[in-house]
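Here comes my example:
=====
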Amino acid sequence: MPEHGGEPAPGDTGGTGTRTGTPAAGRRSRLSVDGGEWLFAAAGLPLALLCGGYAIAVLYAGVLLSLTVLGLPFVAAALLGARGLGALHRRLVGRLLGHRVEAPAAPPRPTGPVARGRAALTDPVGWRSLLYLVLRLPLGVLGFVAAVALPLGGGWLTGFPFWVRLLEPEPRPFGWTDAVSVPLGLLLLAAAPGAIRALSGANRRLAGLLLGPAPVHQRVRRLETARAVLLAENTDRLHRLERDLHDGTQARLVALAITLSLADDALASAAGPDLERTRGLVERARGQTDTTLAELRGLTRGIRPVALDGGLAQALPGLTATSPVPVAVHLDLRERPEPAIERAVYFCAAELLTNVARHSGARSAELGASASDGRVRLTVRDDGRGGAAPGAGTGLAGLAERLAAVDGVLTVDSPPGGPTTITAELPARL
């Protein structure tokens, strides 16, 4: 279950499909540049020239050798080299730009030189890495210009009136070049940080697009992880259900049978029925029956809530009515999702409202749900203390994993001091 009041976790969690938002704490001044960004831009030019030249030479030589027996082996070996250079850039982007790019799958290793060559030539990761090296070349040149040329040029122009008078022996009158050079130099100095940050963002996006797994592979990985989580959760739920039925409901039914048997003995007594004893046994049987029915309702509610028979439009208001924190409900359900999606939305709302009541310290909350254009959106907002963050073993992380099983995404925006807004987005159809 998600917890409020803790320290907010940084940025994204990714693999769970959870995204966190924080307030202005992460904002930087427009005139400030991270040291890693500057180093990546300034020192990345030699590597960009080397790797870009490698990629262009591979493409050029591959075309020339394509009609010879050396063409295909050359390209296959070059693609393996591009894979290695892509891994190097992926580490640099993670270390200097603070952007972790998930490593793609290892290259296939079939037996036999012909099969290995065919696998290398058809490896999409190698071709995407080669394309990255080509596109990284102009970005590397622009990054060097932004990190080195702009500051040097801006500094030289800003001090131009001083330098020119220092170097010339004769006195020089103040002219239009002096008047233009200073503001132009200051403009270049002010533009350098923004240019570095913009190029850093472009490098992050390019690395994420070409150096990580292909989008279809990423989706397969997420679905495989979600399936494993869902299977483990369902297995655990079945074990709990079996234990509750065996240790709780079954034992109470046995006690009820014994009580009814004692009541029957009391009624069939040779000396006549003992009314007081019979009344006590009947009262005990009634209490045991009520308790057993309540347990059975709880167990069946955990499998599929009866309230969902009428859809989310009926289930969600009934759910908020049981919350100890006043909850305003806003529904815009233009279409009805599939039962599996309805169940996921219902249990997500139930867990988030429970968290609001237990941990947020909120005085009021809002629940909104919409379903249109094939998408379902659930939003729970409270005015509590904030600080909710997904983490290892927390409820939000587990909730995000359960939503990922139905291709859903959980977004958390919970700055310290509140308010907390948690949004779940799911497809209406699987």
About this structure: The two ends are 25 Å apart (CA to CA). DSSP finds eleven helices and six strands in the chain.
